[in-house]
Design brief:
Oligomer: single chain
Number of domains: 1
Distance between the termini: 46 Å
Number of helices: 5
Shape: globular
Strand order of the largest sheet: 1-2
Radius of gyration: 21 Å
Strand content: under 5%
Largest sheet: 2 strands, antiparallel
């Protein structure tokens, strides 16, 4: 008699955790893009402008913490996956690795350029939900425009890469959209 065990994915697998962090980060970046676009168009006389900037910076710091966690999980996934067998080095594999590497570079570079902008403008300007963080860059009026331009152009280039990522993962996007719309549909009671 042969006993066959069905393989169940572990609930706390590194890949599942990686996908959870992926979706938390996607929401954080959505908030960052919306608040960043909105607050950059606000007049300086608007009373809540400073609070909105502080909120934007806090979400950016949170996204950097998520990024650190995500890289740790990604290394775990890669270790488990590629110690068993090497990937097939196809054009599609290199394209995927290049796109994802670019996304990770943007996820790191954009907040750093935001810190450059904030710290160059005024010392002790970055707070994490009210906690003042140490400056990464010295106050330097000459670097304000460099930080502003880098933050702007990196952000919108990142958005273009997110669109490319979404197109590349279209099947996943469609499946998630279907799940979401089914969740929102009212449940009919059986008669």
């Amino acid at each position: 008699m042969t006993i066959v065990y069905a393989l169940k994915p572990r609930l706390n697998s590194a890949f599942k955790q990686l996908m959870t962090v992926h979706w938390w980060m996607s929401w954080a970046y959505l908030v960052l893009f919306v608040t960043g676009t909105y607050m950059s168009q606000l007049d300086r006389s608007v009373s809540y402008r400073g609070s909105l900037y502080d909120f934007h910076k806090s979400i950016a710091v949170l996204s950097m913490a998520f990024l650190t966690w995500r890289i740790f999980l990604l290394l775990q996934v890669w270790w488990k996956k590629y110690t068993k067998r090497f990937p097939k080095f196809t054009v599609a594999w290199f394209r995927t690795v290049a796109l994802h590497t670019s996304l990770y570079v943007f996820m790191w570079a954009i907040p750093i350029s935001g810190f450059l902008l904030s710290n160059s403008f005024r010392a002790n300007n970055v707070k994490f939900f009210g906690i003042v963080l140490p400056d990464m860059f010295p106050q330097n009026a000459a670097m304000v425009d460099v930080g502003r331009n880098a933050h702007f152009w990196l952000s919108y280039t990142f958005l273009a890469f997110i669109v490319l990522h979404t197109i590349a993962q279209w099947k996943v996007v469609r499946a998630n959209w279907r799940r979401f719309t089914n969740f929102l549909k009212p449940k009919s009671k059986a008669v």
